[in-house]
């Protein structure tokens, strides 16, 4: 389980170093969530979840407010959700989630990112069956046993709880995201390093040095695409 957490942690660290790109992606995601429901997180669970994620990435308040105000203002800009699946170097598997107002542009850019970096796009379902949608939380300040006892007292079943490098990581069913989050908050835990839904691989693969270099380039290209919100994969990137 630890390696999967390392990949989430490494991905988050990389995003933290590219603030403007992260803010732009969150701005779009917040706008879409606010526009599809009420622009109030207390009555819009999807918006509430996005805002919680944005908080862990230190997205500035003015970015959040601007996106919500845009939704309130009746903007007619429409975005649709798309998921692309494919294969990278060395038999690696990749899932790409996108928000786009131009599907032809998005699919062309994603296909090129795969094709030019030793990969190829697959059909829907060709990769996702090897991943599990999972609610992931990471927090500091309390130990593994304390967190586990807290969840048991709240009568919440989770997939896994483990401690690594001073953080306690909790994997739960995706539909229990808000239940777990509220249990944390009820017990005084309001700050999270990670609080999001992720796609965790059932198994991970290690790549040769050459394949890994090409794979990382492919992931960087995908992450840089304006329409791409999330990229998930099954590669063990080690302790980089």
UniProtKB/TrEMBL annotation:
One of its GO terms (molecular function) is DNA binding. Its main location: cytoplasm. One of its GO terms (biological process) is regulation of DNA-templated transcription. It comes from Bhargavaea cecembensis DSE10. HAMAP family: Transcrip_reg_TACO1, Transcrip_reg_TACO1_YeeN. SUPFAM superfamilies: YebC-like. Gene3D superfamilies: 1.10.10.200, 3.30.70.980. Keywords: Cytoplasm, DNA-binding, Transcription, Transcription regulation. Residues 1-21 are annotated as: Disordered. Pfam families: TACO1_YebC_N (PF20772), Transcrip_reg (PF01709). This is Probable transcriptional regulatory protein C772_01929. Residues 3-74 form the TACO1/YebC-like N-terminal domain. One of its GO terms (cellular component) is cytosol. It is found in: Cytoplasm. The keyword Transport does not apply. NCBIfam families: PRK00110.1 (NF001030), PRK12378.1 (NF009044), YebC/PmpR family DNA-binding transcriptional regulator (TIGR01033). Residues 80-235 form the TACO1/YebC-like second and third domain. Belongs to the TACO1 family. YeeN subfamily.
């Amino acid at each position: 389980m630890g390696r999967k957490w390392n990949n989430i942690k490494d991905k988050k660290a990389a995003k933290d170093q590219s603030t403007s790109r992260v803010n732009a992606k969150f701005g779009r995601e917040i706008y879409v969530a606010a526009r599809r429901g009420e622009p109030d997180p207390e009555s819009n669970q999807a918006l509430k979840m996005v805002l919680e994620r944005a908080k862990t990435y230190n997205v500035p308040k003015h970015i959040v407010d601007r996106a919500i105000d845009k939704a309130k203002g009746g903007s007619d800009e429409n975005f649709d959700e798309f998921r692309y699946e494919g294969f990278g170097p060395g038999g690696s598997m990749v899932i790409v989630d996108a928000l786009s107002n131009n599907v032809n542009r998005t699919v062309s850019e994603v296909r090129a990112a795969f094709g030019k970096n030793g990969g190829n796009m697959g059909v829907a379902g060709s990769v996702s069956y090897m991943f599990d949608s999972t609610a992931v939380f990471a927090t500091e300040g309390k130990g593994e046993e304390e967190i586990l006892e807290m969840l048991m007292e709240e009568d919440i079943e989770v997939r896994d709880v483990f401690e690594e490098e001073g953080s306690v990581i909790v994997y739960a069913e995706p539909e229990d995201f808000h239940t777990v989050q509220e249990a944390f908050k009820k017990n005084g835990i309001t700050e999270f390093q990670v609080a999001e839904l992720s796609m965790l691989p059932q198994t991970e693969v290690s790549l040769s040095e050459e394949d890994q270099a090409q794979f990382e380039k492919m992931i960087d290209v995908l992450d840089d695409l304006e329409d791409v919100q999330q990229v998930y994969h099954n590669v063990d990137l080690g302790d980089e």
